[in-house]
Amino acid sequence: MNWLQQLLNGISVGSIYALIALGYTMVYGIVKLINFAHGDVFMLGAFIGFYAITVLHLGFIPAILLTMAVTSLIGVLIERVAYRRLRNSPRIAALTTAIGVSLFIEYTTIYVRGAQPDVYPDLFGDRVIRVFGATTRVDTLVILLISVLLMLLLQWIVHYTKIGKAMRAVSYDADAARLMGISVDRTISWTFALGSALAGAAGVIFGLYYTKIDPLMGLIPGLKAFVAAVMGGIGSIPGAMVGGLLLGLVETGVSALGFSLFRDAVAFIILILILLFMPQGLFGKNVREKV
Amino acid sequence: MLSLEAIDVYYGKIHALKGVSLSVDEGEIVTLIGANGAGKTTLLRTISGLVRPKNGTIRFRGEDLTRRRPEDIVALGISHVPEGRRVFANLTVKENLEMGAYLRRDRAGIQADLERVFALFPRLKERLRQPAGTLSGGEQQMLAIGRALMARPKLLLMDEPSMGLAPVLVQTIFGIIREINAQGTTILLIEQNAHMALGVARRAYVIETGRIVLEGPSEALRQSEKVRAAYLGG
């Protein structure tokens, strides 16, 4: 065991959380809704990637791209069908609906393909790479690389494209944005598309890393990504990234020290502590970067 | 250019605008004065499409605006400087101005209008990369006006542009309003500062509890006993 190796593992796991957390935080930033179906979009991503590789025989990168395209459509559809009408309803209505959508996706998936798990094809084999004396699996590095690329891409979209600026404007003040001629509906659709694409990519990466996927696999990573988003300050994009990485590092650290049974508990203890002492999260409120 | 006919607006059970009719001709500055809660802001929000009237029609250059979406109304040439400025504090000054031109595709025209805004408000040019939230109140008002101008509107709706500003700045802002109008933009101005508003506008309307109670040339309203007593401090 080697600390660098653990660090790499922690960052890889953390970047999966971060990718999912970004969707939570972006959607919350713009419609103030905790989209509890988000973890299930991640699950669908894992399956779409799985079928793209095994049935369509796509390579890893085309499979991820296809998955992201499909999950972004699914995200847009979910918002359109389930959430849009509830935008001005009490929050509890939207929240309940989100839980309903989550269950609907999980059990439709089970109905369609059964509840049995699938095993991801081993794309990178058992090849290991030595980095500064630490040995690490190739897929750990692939996860890292892809996550970093996607997060950079997201930052670029949010800060330098028209739609990204519109997303930030709408999340800050939707009515003022409408007075600029910005279509709030379309901007919200884009937000769901981006968040769901990232969750889809996270699903494929997760499948590659943990190999086993099943229709209820979105629950725990979804919850943990939610914890990560709250840790970072819900609504804050950098917060979701940092929160995800932090959570991954803590979990790997706890496991590495031999307390792997407490791994999940530690994640939620951290959530409780943060909510008690830093209810805004690490990047919340003071950083007015809400998307 | 703009005409409202018998507009009724309700917020739930509250009858906020009661049969309001009003018109603005091309090239004019028209002001709407009235106390807090009289319905001034509601009227502008109704024109912009943020609030839907229950009855009545709004026409703008031959188009029926009633029940159109805000983004369509912006596209037809009406920009709205909202009450309390409402700049995007998390965006830079430059990005705020870009949002003003959101529906436009003509890069050259946008650039030209950006220069025009800088000519009106040189301060904004100095603060281009700063988040709008770090600007002073007066600068934010300038940004809100500049942002609205970036849509190159034919009609500019302004909601209390002098609110909360130091007297010197109020003078500046009203100078700017005149200049924007002189450059060819028609303006419908809401103000609590009736003195200044009647000074700059050609015609005026007085609104009380959702109803237009007086209208006429600014000069005539300025002489009216009622207006003097209620809005000009005797």
From TrEMBL, chain A:
Topology within the bilayer: Multi-pass membrane protein
Domain of life of the organism encoding this protein: Bacteria
Compartments, record wording: Cell membrane
Keyword terms: Amino-acid transport, Cell inner membrane, Cell membrane, Membrane, Transmembrane, Transmembrane helix, Transport
Chief location bin: membrane
InterPro entries tied to this protein: ABC_transp_permease, BCAA_transport_permease
Transmembrane segments: 6-26, 59-78, 90-112, 140-158, 188-210, 225-249, 261-283
GO cellular component terms, semicolon-separated: plasma membrane
One of the protein's GO biological processes: D-alanine transmembrane transport
One annotated GO molecular function: L-isoleucine transmembrane transporter activity
PANTHER family per record: BRANCHED-CHAIN AMINO ACID TRANSPORT SYSTEM PERMEASE PROTEIN LIVH, HIGH-AFFINITY BRANCHED-CHAIN AMINO ACID TRANSPORT SYSTEM PERMEASE PROTEIN LIVH
Assigned protein family: Belongs to the binding-protein-dependent transport system permease family. LivHM subfamily.
Official protein name in the record: ABC transporter permease
Organism for this UniProt entry: Hydrogenibacillus schlegelii
Source lineage: Bacteria, Bacillati, Bacillota, Bacilli, Bacillales
TrEMBL record, chain B:
Pfam families found in the cross-reference section: ABC_tran
Superkingdom classification of source: Bacteria
Cell division in keyword set: no
GO biological process: L-amino acid transport
UniProt keyword Transport present: yes
Keywords from the UniProt entry: Amino-acid transport, ATP-binding, Nucleotide-binding, Transport
GO molecular function: ATP binding; ATP hydrolysis activity; branched-chain amino acid transmembrane transporter activity
ABC transporter domain location: 2-234
SUPFAM superfamilies assigned: P-loop containing nucleoside triphosphate hydrolases (SSF52540)
InterPro entries referenced in this protein's UniProt entry, alphabetically: AAA+_ATPase, ABC_branched_ATPase_LivF/BraG, ABC_transporter-like_ATP-bd, ABC_transporter-like_CS, BCAA_Transport_ATP-bd_LivF, P-loop_NTPase
Family: Belongs to the ABC transporter superfamily.
Protein name: ABC transporter ATP-binding protein
